[in-house]
Amino acid sequence: MIDYLALAPEIVIAATAVVVLLADMWIVRKYWTAIIAVVGTTAAAIPLVVLAVSPVGERSLFEGSYVVDPFALVMKGVFLMAAYVVLLMSFSYVESDRYYQGEYYFLLLLSILGSLVLASARDLIGLFIGIELVATPMYVLAGFRKGDLKSNEAALKYYLLGVLASAMLLYGSSFVFGLTGELTFAGIASHAGGLVHEPAFIMAVLFIIAGVGFKVSAVPFHFWAPDTYEGAPTPITAYLSVSSKAAGFVALIAVTYRAFGPASAAWAPVVWVMAALSMTIANLTALKQDNIVRMLAYSSISHAGFMLVPFVVAPYVDAAGINGAVSATITYLVIYAFLNLGAFALVIAGSRKAGSGTVQGWAGMATYAPGLAFLGMLFFFGLAGIPPLAGWFAKFVMFRVVLTAGSGWAVGLAVIAAVNSVIALYYYARVIKSMWMDPVSVTVPDSEVRDAAVPMTLTLALGITAVAVVVLGVFPGIVTSFTF
Amino acid sequence: MLDNGWGLSLIVFLPLVGALIILLTPKKNLAAIKAFGLTFTALPLIIAVFLIARFDYGAGSAFQFGTDLSWITSINARYHIGVDGISFPMLILSTILTLLALIYSFNHWPEPYNPKAFSALILVLGTAMNGTFVALDLVLFFVFFELVLLPMYFMIGIWGDKTMMKVPGFRIEAETRLYAAIKFFVFTLFGSAFMLLGFLALYYRSGDVAPFVRTFDIPTLISMGSAGAFTGTFAFLVFGALFLGFAVKVPMWPLHTWLPDAHTAAPTVGSVLLAGILLKLGSYGFIRISLPILPQEAQRWAPAIAILAVIGIIYGALACLAQSDMKRLIAFSSVGHMGFVMLGISTLTVVGINAAVIGMVAHGLITGLLFFVAGSMSHRYHTREMVRLGGNQKLMPKMGAILGFTAIASLGLPGLAGFWGEFMSLVGSYNPLAGLDLGVFRTAMVFGAIGTVLTAGYMLWMLQRVNLGEPSAEWGGHALVDADSYELAAWVPLMVLIVAVGVFPKLVFGATNSAVVSLVTKAFGG
């Protein structure tokens, strides 16, 4: 007997995807596909809420390989929220450029379905299916602006490196299965403690972490990110930088803590190096970026580094400490999701008004679009972690966890993170400076374009994220009530 | 009703409410913007004055008018506020200066003209400053401490000095305001990132002592600290982390380099609030957090702080003597004056810490006023270069007189507010806390005393170049507008307070003394 309620969000999204694809064949006004997608995403949230309030605690399906627990519910909530905002951002973007709307929303919904599956997957097969289902539609969507060479490049790079990552993930998984005879994370964990000194096992762990490292775009597996982010349609970039990255972190949490938890001494140093490099290299590179999307790409790599920081305490803490570390990463993800979605929605709105997506092109935006400039202040200073905007709390919980370990290595990483949060401020402040303090750029189009209203759906996306950034900054307890 | 936490909360958040209302007011409705701004900066002051009457001066060491509400339960951070004898004078100073800064702005909207945004920023700054002084929870303190950065960054960056300057270390030129704004932001953020690490370390260690609950609560941490809970290398590093955060803000030599740039580039009101209140957030942090929570470490670090403070005093004075720009001179004088404040703190005695608090109040009043006057003068003369000024006393008698009065107050003339801080911190360093190296502190005292002479030197030199003599040929025949009513409305209250605190220092000591005595007794055993 299958617990269909536990699968209801996935079923609703899958059904919506099918309906979108079918409807696209018959209806003439293609924007209806978008409306169906939005309605479906909203409808999927209903069973999620039912599951969250239901007295039945953890629901386990398919012999423990598919689990709906609080962690899965929170992550599904994040994925649906992000999906909703991305859909709002897509609406005017896709419509104005005459894309294949039905296909666009169909593929996006499939990727969303993948992220929901991933949140519940508790074995290597489910994990792989989830990751692939998130990524494969994105290979297509990244190249959706067919006439633009940059978009082609984006798709190709993302595809080649993504497939490589998947291959590494699978290769590592096969070793793990061979050594342990298990596919479920719990089963692997029961053997992992005894295999810490087995070179083949260490290699398998490293392969899997490298494979997932591509998905979270951590250094040194980040090379695809800036080019893909720049070339892909901006709503897809937003999705890649938030949902796809969050999916990567869900996978990373699953394999590191759940499957290889007892072997944390083997992988924690690797994650330490990845975190330190991601923060530092991405931040230093971001200082030099003039294209705002590229800057945000490097910023999202450095945020991945910040999110990796809590992982390094694993060898030093007990089970409660591990829970704290997981909660810190998820809290960071939730807050980062709102900030980054807002920032990309702003990029869409701002680039349209300024006729450019560069820092210099946005100069003086405060004079002709004060509202957008104000939102820019919220999102960019929020990403920099300046209180009372939400980003500060994300950094705060991250620092809080890393200091629990009481180990010199962890404190060292905290210091690196602290220095990096100052470097990051500089490039975020550069955009703010340009918008507020520089004279109006000469490249700004005439008033007809400049003063055109921001589309309603985009305004809604900006509004949701802006309100979240301020409210969560002042009352971060709202997030932690779910994540802790 | 106002003394159960509502009063302080209103003082903190009314300006923020005002800022939001102003943001919703149409840009063209200048009268409404002014009215809202005035209302929402005057109300906190009125409440503060009301609280002055209700304050229990006998129990100045206790936190009063406070409240303690749950805020972020998962990390046990609470909305815990309250004032004691040390923070209360600072809070009042902050409400006064915010109001006066706004009144002054009514007649001096800096370029580019945008009263709406400018008033809103002053109000947000008011909330951040007031909040820092009443916060009794490390997380709350951190949030307000950082919130100060945003409005000040925009104030300097948008309304600041537009002359070009060469960016040190690079072969490029940039507008002074842009360079100064980001420098201010990056320096302070660098310090506060480490301060946050220090706060978190304290939070963790607080879970190891009774009652074994991790807490950010400042009074709880203080009682743990005075019971000797935080010691060893751990505490040494934590004090170092907090030191970075606070010392950048004070600023102490050699972390001061953002200050002259920021002060010089900021619009007049920005400089006033920066010098008047923002610098005090750092020294206040030392008195509120570092000293009582980490008393053993305070004793280990005290000689180093004293030496850095004295270097700041001498360095600030020498730098002043080398300035040609009037505003920059006043900015460097802040380095020296805050050096005296830090010297007082480093003695860890009742006299020294009292000196620090009154020094902070006096510096807020005096240097605030100096920046007001300097701003108004550069408004008239369109230059701050002292070689082009001169004979100001003849051209603008009222403004000249006020400048003379303030400069004299700044050099520490007895009978005016500036005297007590300098004098008592020198007295304190003659006789520091038992166990501290007498040689270091007495040498510090000697150099500090030399510093007071140098202070008198550069202040009088400035007066001589700006105020005295005949007007230069450039300005001779011109009829310059003397101090107008808005300016006088902003300045006269400050002058009255400077005299009042100078003649009757008990205005401040009455509140601070019992709090300082209790701090020193609990932390250092007398």
Structure notes:
The complex is a heterodimer of chains A (484) and B (526). By secondary structure, chain A is mainly alpha-helical. Chain A contains 20 helices and two strands. In chain A, strand 1 and strand 2 (66-68) form a beta hairpin. By secondary structure, chain B is mainly α. Chain B has one domain. Helices cover 72% and strands 4% of the residues of chain B. Chain B is globular, with a radius of gyration of 22 Å. The model of chain B has no long low-confidence stretch (mean pLDDT 89). At the A-B interface, helix 16, helix 17 and helix 20 of A face helix 5, helix 6 and helix 7 of B.
Q: What's the count of strands of chain A?
A: 2
SSE series of chain B: HHEEHHHHEEHHHHHHHHHHHHHH
How many alpha or pi helices of chain A? 20
The unreliable regions of chain A are none
What class, by secondary structure content of chain B? mainly alpha
Structure annotation, total helices of chain B: 20
Widest beta sheet: strand line-up of chain A: 1-2
Could you say which overall geometry of chain A the principal axes of the C-alpha atoms support?
globular
Extract low-pLDDT stretches of chain B. none
- How many whole angstroms does the radius of gyration of chain B measure? 22 Å
The helicity of chain B comes to over 70%
Shape of chain B: globular
